[in-house]
Amino acid sequence: MLKKVVVIVTVLLISTAGVAGCCTVFTASVGDTVLFGNNEDWPDTNTRVWFLPATETEYGGVYFGFSDFYAQGGMNDQGLCFDANAIPETRMKPHPEKLLVLNFGRRILQQCATVEEAIQIIERYDLSGLGKAQFLFADKTGDSMAVCPGPHGEMEVVRKEGVYQVTTNFNVLNPWLGGYPCWRYNAAAGMLRKIENENDLTVEYFASILKAVYQRHTTYSTIYDPVNRIVYVYNQRNFDEVVVLNLEDELEKGYHAYYIPLLFPRKQSDQELGEPEAEAEEQKPEEQEPEEPPKEEQKSEITTEDSHPAESVSFSDLLYLLSAIVLIGIGLAALLWKKRT
Q: Taking the mean position of all CA atoms in its chain, how far away is CA 18?
C-alpha cells in the first residue's frame, strides 16, 4: 500500500513540475507600423542572443535562446519574426515521406521573407514532432499567423484577423486540451484591443503589455520592429532598462553571440561609491507597481489584490508544494517504520 501511495504522489509531482514554463507572444500592425513582442518564461538565466549572417541560400537573422543555441525566437533580415509557446500535447500523424526539420522556426526564417511564403513551404516538412508546440509568425507587412497542431494531427495555420494576434500556452485550435482560460492571453488581448491608430502602437506600449503579463520565471523579453529591423531586449522582468540592437549593424559584424545578462551591466549605486546612505536613499527612484490584468482575467490564478499575478501563488504551485510535502512525509514515515521492524 505504501509503495502505491509513493508512486501516485511521484506521478503527481512529475505532472505538475512543468506547469511553471509559460510564454506570451503577440503582434500588432496599424498602417506602416508593425511590432512583435515576447516574454520568454523559463527558469534559466543562461540566455543568449546570436546573429547568423545571410548566405547564398539563406536569409540572415537574429535569434534568442539558451546555452544550447536552439532558437526559441528571432527575426530575419527580411523582417519575418517568430516565437513559440509550449502547449498541451496533440497526437500528430507521422510523415516520413517529408523533410525532417530540427528547428522549425529558424528554418522558416532562413527560407522565407513573408508569412505567405512560409505558408507555402510548411507542407514540405514532417512536423509530427511538434505536438507540444505552437508558433506565431509576423512579417514587415503586418501579416501574421499562428501555426499549431490541429484536431486531426496535422499542423494548421490560423491567420490574423484585425489589428493583433496573441498566443499563450493553450492550443488556439483546441483550447480545451488545457491551459484555457489564460489570464495572460486575456490581459494582452485586452490591451491590444485599445490600439486604434499608429500613435497607439509604440514600443513603450508593447513593453507595458509585456510588463503586465510577466511571470516569476520571465528570463528575457523582446520586441521586434520588423519594418526597421530593430530589436528591443529586456532582461529579468526589468522593463525600465532596454538594450536596442540594430539587425543590419549586427549582421555586418559576422557571426557572433552575446550573453544577455552581460548586455545589462549593473551600475554602481551612490552608496557603493561611498556617498552617505541618506543621500543615496533620496536619489533612489520610486518603484512602480506592475500593472495587473483585469479582475475577470485572474480566474486561473490565486492572487493578492496588490500584487502582480506573477508574484502570487498559482494553484499548480500550491499543488506541487503540497505534493512535495506529502512525499517527504511518506518517506520519513517509511524510514521510521523500517527502523522499528
A: 14
Sign of CA dihedral 92, 99, 148, 311: positive
- Which residues are CB-contacts of 79 (< 8 A; sequence separation ≥ 6)? 34, 113, 139, 140, 226, 227, 229
> Distance between CA 88 and CA 321 in Å, rounded?
22
Domain ranges of the chain: 1-19+314-341, 23-265+287-301
- Confidence (pTM): 0.76
Residue spans of the chain under pLDDT 70: 1-21, 267-324, 326-327, 338-341
Task: Name the CATH superfamily, with its identifier, for domain 23-265+287-301.
Answer: Penicillin V Acylase; Chain A (3.60.60.10)
Single-letter code of the amino acid located at 177 = L
> All 3 cell numbers of residue 45?
538565466
Output the DSSP codes for 237-277: TEEEEEEEEEHHHHHTT-SEEEEGGGGSPPPPPTTTTT--H
pLDDT in tens, 260-271: 999 998 743 333
The rounded distance, in Å, linking the Cα atoms of 226 and 73 is: 13
- Axis crossing angle, helix 115-122 with helix 104-111, rounded to the nearest 10: 120
Triad 120, 111, 147: Cα angle to 5°: 50
What does the alpha-carbon distance between residue 341 and residue 336 come to, in Å, rounded to a whole number?
Answer: 9
158-202 pLDDT, tens per residue? Answer: 999 999 999 999 999 999 999 999 999 999 999 999 999 999 999
